[in-house]
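Appendix B: complex inputs.
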Amino acid sequence: MQLKSVTSPRWLPHALAHFDEVLIDHAHCEKKAAANALSLLQAFPEVPGLPAQMARLAREEASHLAKVLQVMEGRELTLGFDRGDPYAKGLLQLARNPAKERRLDRLLIAGIIESRSFERLELLAAGLTDPALKKLYAELAKSEDGHQKLFVRLAKAVEPEAVVDARLDVLLTGEAELVERLPLRAAVH
Ligand SMILES: [Fe+2]
Ligand SMILES: [Fe+2]
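Resulting structure:
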């Protein structure tokens, strides 16, 4: 999928200047990605291929979480409580309520979050100077790119391609407006 906006050029310098905060937020993001994969498995077991794919995804996101926690440990950072993510919350507000529409929207929103994460993690990979961190962020970015494609494939397994493409277009417009509206944070989103 193609996002409808690019991240403000002010984000990367801010994120690099407060990288410890970004790491903590990033760990929470990976934790939520793992939890969301299991939540989608719980909610939509009927979708062909979804249970096995979400089980694999949960494992992969948990391994990302472990890697970020390891970096944090090296810097003597503690995770602390999740202070919430206004970006993910804002996106979920765009999900419609009837069951069929909600299923499509949850899959597409999960894909959009992966897609924005891919963009931001790639920016971090380019901006970081420590070779080990640069490599880690490049690897994680690539993985999130694969995840956004997976969610679009799953959406197309439950709804006709034209319906998916039209809804994705609407949600991507909503996402771009949300990103524009939210204050710049030392966080992945
Ligand atoms: Fe991840
Ligand atoms: Fe992911």
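Residues 11-181 form a domain with the Ferritin fold (CATH 1.20.1260.10).
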